[in-house]
Amino acid sequence: MFEKILIANRGEIAVRIIRTCKEMGIRTVAVYSEADANSMHVQMADEAICIGPAASGESYLRIDRIVSAAEIADVDAIHPGYGFLSENSHFADICESCNIRFIGPSSRAMNALQDKALSRQLAKKAGVPVPPGSEGVVENEAEALAIAKKIGYPVLIKAVAGGGGRGMRIAHNDISLMKGYHTARSEAEKAFGNSGVYVEKYFENPHHIEFQMVGDMRGNVIHLGERDCSIQRRHQKVIEETPSPLIENKFKDLRKKMGKAAARIMETAQYNNAGTVEFIVDDAGNFYFLEVNKRLQVEHPITEETTGIDLVKLQIQIAMGEPVRLSQGDFRFHGHAIECRINAENPYDDFRPSPGRIEMYYPPGGHGVRVDSHAYAGYYIPSHYDSMIGKLITYGKDRREAIDRMARALGEFMLTGIKTTIPLQQSILQDPDFRRGVYSTGFIEQLLRRGSP
């Protein structure tokens, strides 16, 4: 059993990890930047260590400062959360060399899935379909144009590193391809320190479905069902739900097929701990591998609600060397769960960030409602980090109950002083197509074009 864990992150995910550690009797150490001195995770942890100024490049991304804090606090393990260093194999290696357990996949597994281009190659090796595209990093304009001519427009230019929609551009012709190629490379270099991009076929308004995977150190890999993440803007998720209405209503056999495909990818990579395999699915039920997220996902709570499994606890147990005590046959969905990401943004002003002080903060409650957040009345949202300030999760015996409960909870959420995505999410939940489960990745764009208030 670990006695003390350092959380190499901030915000709601740091709070989320601390809660599970407390339930397990494990002491916690928070690290924080100067901008986060009054953050909730700092107040909740048993110990807290400042690791630098506000800029993440001088704090949360500084491996040396985080490892020094871990050594000073004499911790057994580090949990990276998501984002920042969570998928950095060098960080995992350094942790292990310092005799500190990294709560996540091994550096070997990370390297096998090091970037999206390598992951495509591994998926093909595992016999999983991938979108037509380049075999690896595209080195110049001429190569990009040749690939686009071969597979046909539209195409997607994607950064091999990172995520969150950065370093991605859609091209419908040669001119937009050349412009998008250079823009994507520049954006990727600034965001991830890696300008590498690749090109693949772009599917107009597909469904984005991912599978939650867990693997132990003995080679056992299972999935815990799918999550539908198609409600997104600029490739960033806004609402997620499980099970997927597309699979439930139209393609029930896909759950088994996609789950097996996801397991083959993780087994080929010799993956251990929690991770997610992402796919796109077209209207005919054809699915294609997108990428592997080598960490805990933001939307993991909806899987917890429908399975009864604490994924953070499971991560810690696997890192301690315990086996996954579930077989694929044991897995069952129970009910339906939906998550709304509450972001400090104005959705009706091009999703402009809205940092500032929260004047009133009163989260919703009641049966089947869960709020994961680090916000409170008087908390100042810094402009240096991701704009998400919390996640609202509702659970119901079926999809209709989960939706009705979410609509009620969003209306109950009192949050003033800043702009948030709540009004947009309320509009989405009232939309007849969403309520019928008929939507794709272009849903929000179409809703905003229709002039949602």
Structure report:
- There is one protein chain.
- This protein has 453 residues and is α+β, with helices and mostly antiparallel strands.
- The protein folds into 3 domains: 100 residues, 3-Layer(aba) Sandwich (Rossmann fold), CATH 3.40.50.20; 70 residues, ATP-grasp fold, A domain (Dna Ligase, domain 1, 2-Layer Sandwich); 243 residues, ATP-grasp fold, B domain (D-amino Acid Aminotransferase, Chain A, domain 1), CATH 3.30.470.20.
- Helices cover 34% and strands 26% of the residues.
- It has 16 helices and 22 strands.
- An 8-stranded antiparallel beta sheet has the order 13-12-9-10-11-14-21-19, sandwiched between helices.
- Helix 13 runs antiparallel to helix 14.
- The radius of gyration is 21 Å and the shape is globular.
- It starts with a strand and ends with a helix.
- The relative contact order is 0.11.
- The mean pLDDT is 95.
Please describe the structure with a list of short key phrases separated by commas or semicolons.
34% helix, Rossmann fold, eight-stranded antiparallel sheet, 16 helices, 453 residues, alpha+beta, D-amino Acid Aminotransferase, Chain A, domain 1
Rough shape?
Answer: globular
For the largest beta-sheet, the strand count, sense and barrel status come to: 8 strands, antiparallel
Number of helices: 16
* CATH superfamily label of the largest domain: ATP-grasp fold, B domain
Strand order of the largest sheet: 13-12-9-10-11-14-21-19
